[in-house]
Amino acid sequence: MSPNKIYTRTGDAGMTSTVSGERVKKSDFRIEVYGALDELNACIGCLLTQKIPETDVSLLKEAQNLLFELGRILFADGERVSECSFFKKGLKELEHAIDTIQQDFPRPGGFVLPGGTVSAAWGHMARATCRRTERLLCRLLDEGGIVPECFSYINRLSDYLFVLSLKLNYIAGKKENLWQKRCGFEK
Question: In which region does residue 106 sit, left (phi positive, over 0), alpha (psi from -120 to 50) or beta (all else)?
């Protein structure tokens, strides 16, 4: 590949390369997980274009780095991962941030519908993308293809993105739009 060109034409037939250089179909499950991690990272990047508190900016930038790290770990093609301290540290930081937000801001009185400010809407988009990524990673967890600390980090990241969205709406003085139940269910 020429260093000046972004395109290689090597994927034109529906194949791509893993980290180790193995050629696989773009429909390979591993590539689906790569894509989900990439989409989540992009959503967080969009959230970072908004005006948000600096402490949250730091957490989100660290999340972006850890998402790249997770992609590398997941597809190290047989190499055993022995060090996950960054994910353990990140997990504790997310839990601390969630606890702080829940202490500092009132909880809505029902199920929240995504929206409000643009920044909160991006937070909800990132949360939904994180949940989908988590569902894909769950398959790898079941197969022993992911260490539990990494999976726990993604789970907590989605929780953090939810409370961050609430916080951003609260700071802006925007009331949450709550789900209005329409249908009754019989027992």
Answer: beta
pTM of the model: 0.88
Pairwise CA distance, residues 105 & 102, whole Å: 6
User: What are the backbone angles phi and psi of residue 42, rounded to the nearest 5°?
Assistant: -65, -40
* Residue ranges per structural domain of the chain: 18-104+111-174
Q: What is the pLDDT of residues 125-145, one digit of tens each?
A: 999 999 999 999 988 877 766
Burial 147-179 (b: 16+ CB within 10 A, else e): bebbbbbbbbbbebbbbbbbbbbbeeeeebeee
Kindly state the average pLDDT of the residues 85-90. Answer: 90
The closest of 141, 156, 25 to 74, measured between CA atoms, is 141
Name which CATH class applies to 18-104+111-174.
Answer: mainly alpha
Strand pairing partners for 23? 17
Distance CA 52, CA 55 (A): 8
Contact indicator for 151, 72 with CB cutoff of 8 Å:
no
